[in-house]
Amino acid sequence: MYSMLFVRCLRKIPPMSKSNSSNQNQKFQTGKNHRHSYLKPSGGRTNLMRGPVYDSIFLRDSCTCELCVDPSTKQKTFQTSDIPADILAVKELGPSKTSVTLKWQNDLPGYPESHRTRFPADTVNRSYADWQSFQRVKQDERVRWDQEKMLEDVKYIEFDDWMHDDHGLFAGLQMLDTHGLLFLKNVPPSEQSVEVIISRIGSLRDTFYGRTWDVKSKVDAKNVAYTHQFLGLHMDLLYMANPPYLQLLHSLHAKAPGGESIFSDSLLAADTIRNTDYASFRVLKNLPVLHHYKNDNQHYRFERPTFEMRSLQGLGNVRGASGKYARNMMDYVNWSPPFQGPFIFPNGDKKFREYHKAACMFSDLVNSESAIFEKRLEEGECVIFNNRRVLHARRAFDPSKGSRWLKGAYVDEDVFRSRLRVLTEKYDPHGALQNSFFLR
Ligand SMILES: [Zn+2]
């Protein structure tokens, strides 16, 4: 809500020609336009209707003084809806050229006459810098990969580096962000290791499969994963409203021959379809597909399109290439044939044929020899992959010739993003600024 408001306002601001630092000494002044008061850089356009302006309500809402944001909890102490519509920002004259102080006419009830809102110039300019950064963010920074590309880029991180070196952890999380696939090696042969690995990111995602779960061949399996058969490319738990983002699989036993893991980048396939057959792309982004799990006293179901595009309400009118790009951004791909439920189509509806054609195209692309990255998980290795992007599969194995045992667990996207943001701010502040709006 906050950033949306911010952007809605910033949208009106023409780009500044110089970088953030060169604006440090800019003076600010308020102007009046009918009922509203505005704050604008004095170096900007003078036409209040067209120039860079900040609305009084917006400015009041942005106050971060100790009365408005609790210093301990960092929580906002008032509601945006508490701000009177007729509030007016009045610039207090002072000697400072590097900050602006505002006092308020018709402030929120209960605020003292002495309430002041101070914006250091770099905070005001920071919003310009953010805006400029956004304009530079013209392309999706996720790296599309096929087999050849992943053979070049594949990353193995030592368990010890993951655990004890924040740079190692950051490198791993960045790889997950850009490629959605990462391997750890020399992981201790303990059933607790996946939980220990996740503790570096945050809390794990519990599901009805348990906090962690075992992938072993079982008699009477309730899920095809728990057999020794070939398991085709899929994603996990798409029948849930919020499917897990990261999946971890730690190899504890790898004595049985076979059972190689296979990974494929769904974004690459989606791009190919977008660029070669837009009608099919449209079908896959519009037609909801049901995934369900009804078994063993559980009944989950959820419908979503194969290609899940980002909805950017409030940002849809952003002009320029970046706005166009933002509207076309794909957040997730949803593909899990073993858990697909029945479609409901009226007899003879041609949409089903269109879906069938598009689904064949997608399946052929992700399964093609050149697309798949195959890797046998040896004992002591752990794979981490983005379950909302990277498809995974497993070749059949022979359980009569030895045991195969993987320990698995999930992590939610929020948990992953939080850790990545904290580490990005620490080690790559410029990246943090760039990513603050649009790239998740
Ligand atoms: Zn305040």
Keywords:
2 domains, six-stranded mixed β-sheet, 30% helix, alpha+beta, four-stranded antiparallel β-sheet, NE0471 N-terminal domain-like, 440 residues, globular, disordered C terminus, disordered N terminus, 19 strands, binds zinc ion, Double-stranded beta-helix
| Measured distance between first and last alpha carbons | 16 Å
Question: What shape does the CA trace take?
Answer: globular
CATH topology of the largest domain: Double-stranded beta-helix
* Mean pLDDT score: 80
So what's the CATH class of the largest domain?
Alpha Beta
Strand count, sense and barrel status of the largest sheet are: 6 strands, mixed
* Strand order in space, largest sheet: 6-7-17-10-19-8
Going by helix content, strand content and strand pairing, the class is: alpha+beta
Radius of gyration: 26 Å
Helix content: 25-40%
Cofactor: Fe(2+)
Biased composition (Low complexity): 17-27
GO molecular function, one term: metal ion binding
Family: Belongs to the gamma-BBH/TMLD family.
Describe the structure.
The protein has 440 residues and is α+β, with helices and mostly antiparallel strands. The chain has 2 domains: 2-136, NE0471 N-terminal domain-like, CATH 3.30.2020; 147-435, Double-stranded beta-helix, CATH 3.60.130.10. The protein has helices at 2-10, 56-61, 121-136, 147-153, 159-164, 166-178, 193-199, 266-276, 278-286, 320-327, 350-367, 413-427, 429-435, and strands at 28-33, 36-41, 88-92, 99-105, 117-120, 156-158, 181-185, 213-215, 231-234, 246-254, 261-265, 288-295, 298-305, 307-309, 330-333, 373-375, 382-386, 390-394, 404-411. A 6-stranded mixed beta sheet has the order 6-7-17-10-19-8. Helix 8 crosses helix 11. The longest helix has 18 residues, at 350-367. Residues 63, 65, 67-68, 115, 117 line the site of zinc ion.
